Backbone:
């Protein structure tokens, strides 16, 4: 399915049918990359979450004015604006605070550009997997579903699932070679 | 030359990605709560506007005519002049409100 067309269709559903599920689908598609962009600027997970939330809410409220091609890029721009505004506010607050009252600078270890890139690559690689393999990865690594349960769900043996996971991992490792 | 990724590195990456997914799910849930609240408010506004259109505007018009009628009834003017005094503001009101009613949308 063409991603761009699909974005437009989902937005049409949100606007004309007030379908909140269509907006949830859009968010599912882009929230991770928008969060990554926010984290790149804010360098702090809590603030990045706040920025991402604000960006999507703003995008939802201004959806009727959207004339773009790529919804994800538009929300990322909104998130960047919000993040820069927040940083500017924080900077001004720090300047107006006397040096005695100034709190200690938080350690800047939450954000790592390389880690961010690797995460994005992994997400992309997982997205490119066939649906059945992607589902196994989702269950096993993201939802911590036991191997036995996965085997039952797919009507296969536990060993079979282990072999499949091993093969998928090998494929992912190859794709993620540095 | 490309360096192969080790199993340990991939496990760490999966763990981080799962952690990220949790954060993103949390964001999605919070945004959807706001979206649903907005939709409920939108529906509420739509019904309020519908009720306002069906009952509010006729009620305001009746009140206005009633007040005008009473003022005119007690005025020392002659009947034709009273009719003109009642009719003129009413015509002006209708003329002024037509563009607004034309563009009236319940889902605004």
Residues:
């Amino acid at each position: 399915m063409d991603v761009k067309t699909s974005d437009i269709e989902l937005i049409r559903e949100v606007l004309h049918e007030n379908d909140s599920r269509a907006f949830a689908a859009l968010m599912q598609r882009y929230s991770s990359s928008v969060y990554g962009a926010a984290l790149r600027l804010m360098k702090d997970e809590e603030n990045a979450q706040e920025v991402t939330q604000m960006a999507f809410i703003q995008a939802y409220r201004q959806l009727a004015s959207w004339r773009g091609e790529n919804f994800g890029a538009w929300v990322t721009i909104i998130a960047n604006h919000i993040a820069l505004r927040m940083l500017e506010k924080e900077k001004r607050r720090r300047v107006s605070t006397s040096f005695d009252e100034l709190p200690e600078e938080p350690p800047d270890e939450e954000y790592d550009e390389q880690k961010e890139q690797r995460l994005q690559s992994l997400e992309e690689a997982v997205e490119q997997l066939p649906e059945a393999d992607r589902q196994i990865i989702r269950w096993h690594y993201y939802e911590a579903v036991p191997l036995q349960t996965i085997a039952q769900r797919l009507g296969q043996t536990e060993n079979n699932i282990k072999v499949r996971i091993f093969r998928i991992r090998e494929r992912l490792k190859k794709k993620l070679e540095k | 030359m490309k360096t192969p990724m080790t199993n340990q590195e991939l496990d760490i990456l999966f763990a981080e990605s799962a952690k990220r997914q949790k954060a993103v799910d949390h964001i999605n849930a919070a945004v959807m709560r706001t979206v649903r609240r907005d939709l409920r408010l939108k529906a509420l506004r739509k019904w309020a506007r519908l009720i306002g259109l069906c009952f509010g505007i006729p009620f305001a018009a009746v009140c206005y005519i009633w007040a005008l009628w009473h003022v005119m009834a007690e005025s020392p003017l002659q009947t034709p002049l009273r009719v003109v005094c009642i009719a003129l503001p009413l015509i002006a009101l209708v003329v002024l409100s037509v563009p607004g009613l034309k563009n009236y949308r319940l889902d605004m």
The two ends of chain A are 30 Å apart (CA to CA). Chain A touches chain B at residues 18, 20, 23-24, 27-28, 31-32, 35, 45, 49, 52-53, 56-57, 60-61, 115, 118-119, 122-123, 126, 141-142, 144, 169, 172-173, 176-178 (CB under 8 Å). The first helix of chain A runs from residue 3 to 17.
